[in-house]
Amino acid sequence: MKAKVHVTLKPGVLDPQGKAVSHALDALGFTGVEDVRQGKYIEVDLAETDPAKAREAVDRMCRELLANTVIENYTVEIEG
Amino acid sequence: MKAAVIVFPGSNCDRDVAVALERVAGTKPLMLWHRETEVPSDLDLIVVPGGFSYGDYLRSGAMAAHSPVMAGVKAAADKGVRVLGICNGFQILTESHLLPGALMRNRDLKFICKDVHLTVESADSDFTRGYADGQVVRYPVAHHDGNFFADDETLAAIEDAGQVAFRYCQPDGTVDADANINGSRNNIAGLFNRDRTVLGLMPHPERLIDQHLGGTDGVPMFKSLLEALS
């Protein structure tokens, strides 16, 4: 199965890259952009066939390596 | 003083640190490759040097924090062995949770390579005893991810416990927003653990050990360690 992991900065953590992208969009004439937050998207292919076990394993991967929980949140989506 | 320098693929300040240690202590440090699973038990000091370990993949320091040698470094730190992390080494120590907070992309998104002024916030440690409280020193910085972040609660705890070792300042020692080169919270450039046995800092003391290299402000740090650990 496949795990789709989104890693995003926690609210309140400054995101200078998101800010720069927001300014660039503004400069291109895209009005109404109030804020941009940049994150990471990671796909993990797994041999595991049990969705619950897969989720548990990927959750551990996020806590130990894929995300830095001091500054980042993550979400995990499991696809069969 | 028995010292070791950790070498990761992508480290590039490991030899500078080795030269600094040898100059000051008179003996060559042990160079420990990242795959080592055994860290000698008789070490007094471990230096985690600057560079771009594992190409800064995922996050600066993230891969190195989980390399085989770091388990031994963490165990040694728990026993009170002094650990000094410089630049990428500081990033690795926060990713390893030996130090609190995280080092994020510089506020202005640029790689910063220049000399900066720092205040020595506390001379009461084995790393900083050779300086005076409040002394202004000039060290070079060279980093892209040196923007220190900790949430309000963690930051208050760091300040209350006197864990700040260095802050970015003006040449006259004023700590203000203009001196904050990378957006670090409270101008933090270097940080101790609670016991002051671990120090991480973004600037490079090992690059200022000889007048021919532009100054000697880094020498007292290595002398402090030698005096404390011999």
TrEMBL record, chain A:
It is found in: Cytoplasm. GO terms for biological process: 'de novo' IMP biosynthetic process. Pathway: Purine metabolism; IMP biosynthesis via de novo pathway; 5-amino-1-(5-phospho-D-ribosyl)imidazole from N(2)-formyl-N(1)-(5-phospho-D-ribosyl)glycinamide: step 1/2. GO terms for molecular function: ATP binding; phosphoribosylformylglycinamidine synthase activity. Gene3D superfamilies: Phosphoribosylformylglycinamidine synthase subunit PurS. Part of the phosphoribosylformylglycinamidine synthase complex involved in the purines biosynthetic pathway. Catalyzes the ATP-dependent conversion of formylglycinamide ribonucleotide (FGAR) and glutamine to yield formylglycinamidine ribonucleotide (FGAM) and glutamate. The FGAM synthase complex is composed of three subunits. PurQ produces an ammonia molecule by converting glutamine to glutamate. PurL transfers the ammonia molecule to FGAR to form FGAM in an ATP-dependent manner. Belongs to the PurS family. NCBIfam families: phosphoribosylformylglycinamidine synthase subunit PurS, PRK05974.1. This is Phosphoribosylformylglycinamidine synthase subunit PurS. It comes from Caenispirillum salinarum AK4.
Automatic annotation (TrEMBL), chain B:
Pathway: Purine metabolism; IMP biosynthesis via de novo pathway; 5-amino-1-(5-phospho-D-ribosyl)imidazole from N(2)-formyl-N(1)-(5-phospho-D-ribosyl)glycinamide: step 1/2. Pfam families: GATase_5. Its main location: cytoplasm. It catalyses: L-glutamine + H2O = L-glutamate + NH4(+); N(2)-formyl-N(1)-(5-phospho-beta-D-ribosyl)glycinamide + L-glutamine + ATP + H2O = 2-formamido-N(1)-(5-O-phospho-beta-D-ribosyl)acetamidine + L-glutamate + ADP + phosphate + H(+). CDD domains: GATase1_FGAR_AT. The keyword Nucleotide-binding applies. The active site is at residues 87, 204, 206. SUPFAM superfamilies: Class I glutamine amidotransferase-like (SSF52317). Part of the FGAM synthase complex composed of 1 PurL, 1 PurQ and 2 PurS subunits. PANTHER family: PHOSPHORIBOSYLFORMYLGLYCINAMIDINE SYNTHASE SUBUNIT PURQ. This is Phosphoribosylformylglycinamidine synthase subunit PurQ. It comes from Caenispirillum salinarum AK4. The lineage of its organism: Bacteria, Pseudomonadati, Pseudomonadota, Alphaproteobacteria, Rhodospirillales. The gene is purQ.
